[in-house]
Specification:
Radius of gyration: 23 Å
Order of helices and strands: EHEHEHEEHEHEHEHEHEHEEH
Organism: Hymenobacter aquaticus
Strand content: 15-25%
Distance between the termini: 28 Å
Helix content: 40-55%
Bound molecules: beta-D-fructofuranose
Shape: globular
Protein name: histidine kinase
Strand order of the largest sheet: 2-1-3-4-5-11
Length: 326
């Protein structure tokens, strides 16, 4: 029978340096293991939009059949992604969007919804009265823009809850440690901080602790990763009050890519749901993700076993050929 067609997938990643991105990549690799005919190249733009543009050009030069991209900043990365699309190469946007409608499919959360859910949860935690501070993701990246918009939309329904200050970040904790103390000192009445991811939320907690305010200020993050330093654990340890689940979507991205490449029906918008993780469900979430993790390991072990059997079979075939030729 004819061998399955070989596909080359290029993945332009805005950064690969945090646990959330690593979970995304692990999900992709797991899913890719079901498609041995696919070759996969990842390029890490290390939060640099100009570098990301270069790397996408490199992928084009090397030759790809499909591009998966998480745009570091929406505006600067848009033209090159449009160019890829206009050349007839399908584009799957994963998590961070461009500003353009020229893409084949999107996989990721609805970040306006994430922000809105955070806003409604915050208002109910504060019994609809209090002061709120927001720590945003990097300016110009679509999840930061959308989370902020959704958060504001939700809070607009609660006149007793005021957004009194905003702090920008580069998505990483050190930027919060540097910028938050002055802003928090200027606002001694803050009751709650909404941070656009759990790394920022942990930074916010550390600043509150420095200022002796960790018992007054409730913190809500985003991501809800399992694992030692993940958001679920932060909730369980009482470091943050809640986190909004935001799935990395690696498996879904590869599955969508393969549907597109094999010319099977696919959805253009593949929205991964969100939910509040707080003290009422953190343990359940933790147990479930641990169980998923161990099932994952079982699948890997089975795949290894299969591969060993294939290898044994192949070497026995060689022996047969040699014998037959003799
Ligand atoms: C990981 C991350 C997540 C955040 C997402 C937004 O690189 O910063 O923490 O939810 O990117 O794109």
């Amino acid at each position: 029978s004819a061998p399955p067609p070989k596909y080359r997938i290029g993945f332009s990643q805005c950064t690969n340096g945090d646990a959330w991105r690593q979970a995304m990549l692990a999900g992709m690799k797991k899913e890719l293991s079901f498609y041995p005919e696919v070759s996969f190249t990842i390029k890490d733009a290390r939060y640099n939009s100009a570098l990301q543009e270069q790397q996408i050009k490199e992928l084009l030069r090397q030759g790809i059949d499909l591009l998966i991209v998480s745009a570091n900043e929406a505006e600067p990365v848009t033209p090159i992604v449009e160019e890829v699309y206009n050349r007839g190469i399908p584009v799957v946007i994963l998590d961070r969007r461009t500003t353009s409608k020229l893409y084949t499919a999107y996989v990721g959360g609805n970040n306006v919804e994430v922000g809105r859910t955070a806003g409604n949860y915050a208002a109910s935690l504060l019994k609809q009265r209090g002061q709120v501070l927001e720590v945003l993701g990097a300016p110009g990246s679509s999840p930061a823009v959308d989370r902020h918009r959704g958060f504001g939309q939700a809070l607009a329904a609660y006149p007793g809850v005021q957004l009194v200050a905003q702090v920008n970040s580069n998505w990483e904790r050190p930027s919060v440690l540097a910028r938050l103390p002055a802003v928090l000192r200027a606002h001694p009445e803050v009751d709650l901080i909404f941070a656009h991811n759990d790394r920022l939320a942990l930074g916010a907690y550390q600043v509150c602790k420095q200022l002796g305010r960790q018992n007054q200020v409730k913190i809500v993050g985003v991501d809800g990763l399992p694992g030692m330093r993940g958001g679920i654990q932060l909730v369980q340890d009482g470091v943050i009050t809640a986190t909004l689940l935001y799935s990395p979507g690696g498996e879904e991205a590869i599955r969508t890519a393969l549907k597109i490449l094999r010319r099977q029906p696919y959805d253009k918008e593949n929205i991964l749901g969100t939910m509040v993780i707080d003290s009422t469900n953190a343990l359940t979430m933790k147990l479930q993700t641990e169980k998923l993790g161990s099932q994952q390991q079982d699948i890997q072990r089975q795949q290894q076993l299969l591969q060993q059997q294939r290898d044994t079979y192949a070497s026995q075939q060689t022996v047969l050929y040699v014998l037959a030729a003799a």
